């Protein structure tokens, strides 16, 4: 028997209309300029999104075409978030922390037709422009040196010339709305494509999990180029929260100035940002008192950080877990009701419990599901309506298991359903919320004439959560020091990837099948059993 319900399609367009209609004149989008803020009402943003859709249509953008953004968190980026999916095209957010080579790969892989670029990021685009032949139009907003960019148009000019309404099409909920690339263990980044339906349902999941409503002033620190800023812009828009966008001013000083000036009540970001914010606020007596709650994730959140936020700033810092492949919200770590106050922190410092709509399980080496006993360690697998079932244009059967996504995270689940991630099977390092590929660093190091073998692992770092440690075996009789190898890598990978920690060993630990045993290297480092030399500083 079929239901009597309407076949209503779950689309970003419905979220956009809801936000614009209900909150058009009352809620705002506020972008920080470093010393002052730029305010726009929801109605103004919606109107500019309609103008942008008209402009893109005139440029030949058709349903399904990819339109990329290379931008910080700001009003124009939000306009693109609304216009592109709602006109039936696909929003492709480019991660500005990627190397030029990776950017070239993903723009070509996605076959982006148009790129909307932030003026401050024009040099990055200019450097790759001639290598991305599918891009027919470049639209620049904000100030920037466009001298070397070649053909382009100016955002404000093109939208000013367009009608203020757009005939938004009917869209099927399974159509692609947005895409984002994830840094894989090996090889090039892989594309994840979000449907309208997935974004819609994810918004409802986030709404409940983050306990949001119209009264919140929501500061979006997590980048809009990284998993749609955890879906926060869409859920905020849907609920009418005033959105506070920090643009490129992510250093503690200007960020705290923005907070003091515009008084957000809620925010979300990676631990590195919050660690910097805490230190700055304490040293400078910055007023962060408007913030009541903050979601923190993207890397394991140290218990000490959650405690310091509670004790020093009176902010509830809530850990969440997710991935590009999971839209991203999968888990949230709020304590169960009824636990004594002194035990609350034990629950908050776990990775969290699945949000409704997400199924999680832990699987052992033999592929069998492990019990939720808090002891059995296995790989975390996930499934649900906002979890990817494949990657864009590539077969990756090893990433899926009977319809579940293999996350590459390793951990335990206890009898109450709380997940604790204890390790990572994927060979990547997460530094300040963005990925460093250990495999790529190893490949470059192996090309140095003095290097016989190299392994790069992620180790704990007080500021960046994780940084790479390079363990190197030199060829017999060859000589090379950390500085030589760092200089050798410089220019081949992004500067912020260069390891500061180096250790030279006579052999690398291996597993039974002869693979480098990175777990053992990490353990040796943690136990202080490696002779580590430090050179240089992590740069961003
Ligand atoms: P990304 O696809 O860049 O968002 O990265 C997703 C990965 O970040 C996950 O698979 C985890 O390895 C890591 N991650 C995210 N949140 C957490 C967390 N709360 N604790 C530990 N690791 C996390």
TrEMBL record:
<dbReference type="Pfam" id="PF00501">
    <property type="entry name" value="AMP-binding"/>
</dbReference>
<dbReference type="InterPro" id="IPR045851">
    <property type="entry name" value="AMP-bd_C_sf"/>
</dbReference>
<dbReference type="InterPro" id="IPR020845">
    <property type="entry name" value="AMP-binding_CS"/>
</dbReference>
<dbReference type="InterPro" id="IPR000873">
    <property type="entry name" value="AMP-dep_synth/lig_dom"/>
</dbReference>
<keyword id="KW-1133">Transmembrane helix</keyword>
<dbReference type="Pfam" id="PF13193">
    <property type="entry name" value="AMP-binding_C"/>
</dbReference>
<dbReference type="InterPro" id="IPR025110">
    <property type="entry name" value="AMP-bd_C"/>
</dbReference>
<feature type="transmembrane region" description="Helical">
    <location>
        <begin position="218"/>
        <end position="239"/>
    </location>
</feature>
<feature type="domain" description="AMP-dependent synthetase/ligase">
    <location>
        <begin position="32"/>
        <end position="392"/>
    </location>
</feature>
<dbReference type="GO" id="GO:0016877">
    <property type="term" value="F:ligase activity, forming carbon-sulfur bonds"/>
</dbReference>
<keyword id="KW-0812">Transmembrane</keyword>
<keyword id="KW-0472">Membrane</keyword>
<comment type="similarity">
    <text>Belongs to the ATP-dependent AMP-binding enzyme family.</text>
</comment>
<feature type="domain" description="AMP-binding enzyme C-terminal">
    <location>
        <begin position="440"/>
        <end position="515"/>
    </location>
</feature>
<dbReference type="InterPro" id="IPR050237">
    <property type="entry name" value="ATP-dep_AMP-bd_enzyme"/>
</dbReference>
<protein>
    <submittedName>
        <fullName>Long-chain fatty acid--CoA ligase</fullName>
    </submittedName>
</protein>
<dbReference type="InterPro" id="IPR042099">
    <property type="entry name" value="ANL_N_sf"/>
</dbReference>
<keyword id="KW-0436">Ligase</keyword>
